[in-house]
Amino acid sequence: MKKCLFGAGIFLASSFVAFAGALNTKGVPASAAGVVHIDFDAVSKSKIGQTVKENSNASIPGEPDANLLAELKKELTAGGVSLEDIADLTVALVPRKEGEPETVILVRGKFDPAKIADAAKKENLKAITIGEHTFFVEKLKSEKQPKGGLKLDSDVYFSPLDANTLLLAENKTIAAAALDAFSGKAKSYTAPSSLSAYGKVVGTPFVLVYVNGKIFPKQAPAKKNAEPDALSLDANMTPPNPAHLFFALGEDTKNFKTRLAMTYANAADVQKTQAIAQMMLGMVAMFTNPAGPDGKPDPKKAADAAKINKIVSSLKITTAEPNYLIFSLDYPVDEIVSFLKEAAPAQNNAATADK
After folding, report:
1. Could you tell me if residue 188 is inside a domain?
2. Distance CA 233, CA 122 (A)
3. Alpha helices (runs of H) in 167-230, residue ranges in sequence order
4. Domain end among 140, 162, 183
5. CA–CA separation, 300 vs 293, rounded Å?
6. For residue 166, which phi and psi values (nearest 5 degrees)?
7. Are residues 103 and 247 in the same domain?
8. Contact 280, 317 (CB under 8 A)
9. How far is it, in rounded angstroms, from Cα 214 to Cα 99?
10. Which of 212, 267, 280, 297 has the most other CB atoms within 10 Å of its CB?
């Protein structure tokens, strides 16, 4: 595996531990159109988080010998950071005039700026000054793209702003904007109040996400007079872009909870999205086959099919004014913990078979 330093570790952490608590937007440029808040502290105290940590033997796609959690810890340690010292992080998406949005990541916890700087110097990373802070530039470029893996081909500018905050950005311009927001020279982003409301609904929130629809890619117009095709993914079967998207995931004393709420420009878009979602849920139930290779009922597959169908039936789709579509899932947390424990041995056996 190609060695990367701190930037790669943080990007990996933001995808591996998808959990979040109270939203903190200090340092997020006010022009942001989307935020993903991830809280490591909150999940470490949850039943699901503890189970995931105890059974974290997943391998990296294309590299069955590389344990995902172990590799993550190694990448961060190489950058002078301990995974256990990260409290939370916030990923912000800032629109450009053209193309994909720019990314800023603010990481909070307990850090040693000198240790991080020493690690960067050992790797001969370029150091530049932005404002009053020294940033190190890490080039994230995969030597090859592993099957099913992410191909990294970009720069990451990172700097320990203080003993509790690390800033990562993909270029100097957006790094400077985040610095101004962090220092108070410019306003920081304010998330819609609805996001906090959804967070409260899910108990202790692990994930909080808000996306303004203006940063979604434009969709191709639907084909005229096209015959409906249940398996087609063309514009006729693609859900319309929402105007706003809210997502919260969390856990209370009894249930694992998620809420996905989207607002649309009109009622027709709500109805189309709802119809597509219900069709997809029906397909999941239809293709959940409890039979074995010989066509006879397989007790293990039947049990797995029953679990999947229970989860699908627990997902509620509702509408609300004005033009809201809401997906709600409340599922017994103890059953999810049991499922994760059962899945871990199978995952380990699959990884061993791939070697």
Report:
1. no
2. 48
3. 172-183, 193-201
4. 183
5. 13
6. -120, 140
7. no
8. no
9. 12
10. 212
d(CA 193, CA 68): 35
174 with 226, same domain: the answer is: no
CB 62 within 8 A of CB 143: no
Query: Does residue 341 share a domain with residue 249?
Result: yes
DSSP secondary structure, 79-114, as one string: TT--GGGEEEEEEEEE--SSSSPEEEEEEEE---HH
* Same domain? 150 vs 278: no
Rg of the chain over Cα atoms, rounded to whole angstroms, equals 22
**Nearest-angstrom CA–CA distance, 100 and 105:** 16
**What's the number of CA atoms in the CB half-sphere (13 Å) around residue 112?**
12
Could you report the per-residue pLDDT of 280-317, keeping only the tens digit for each?
A: 888 887 777 666 666 677 787 777 778 888 888 899 99
**Location of structure tokens 């190489």:** 78
Q: Which of 136, 164, 183 is where one domain is finished?
A: 183
What range does the domain containing 340 cover? Answer: 214-354
Token pair recorded at residue 157: 């500018």
Tokens of 300: 């293990």
Confidence (pLDDT) at 77: 67
Q: Do residue 161 and residue 58 come from a single domain?
A: yes
Kindly report the number of other CB atoms within 10 A of residue 85's CB atom: 14
Same domain, 173 and 27: yes
The one-character DSSP state at 253 is: S
Q: Domain check: are 16 and 151 in the same one? A: yes
Please, which residues bridge with residue 139 across strands? 155
Question: Reduced to 3 states, what is the DSSP secondary structure of residue 148?
Answer: coil
- If we measure between CA atoms, which residue out of 61, 262, 276 comes closest to residue 148? 61
- Is 174 found in the same domain as 241? no
In a domain, 102, yes or no: yes
**Cβ-contact 107, 10 below 8 angstroms:** yes
pLDDT for 72 equals 58
| Residues in the chain, pLDDT under 50 | 1-5, 8-21, 59-64, 66, 144-152, 229-232, 348, 350-355
Q: Which of 27, 61, 347, 306 is nearest to 180 (CA)?
A: 27
Sheet holding 324-332, edge to edge: 126-130, 133-141, 153-162, 165-169, 102-109, 86-94, 34-39, 204-212, 244-251, 255-263, 324-332, 315-320
338, part of any domain: yes
Counting the structural domains of the chain, the total is 2
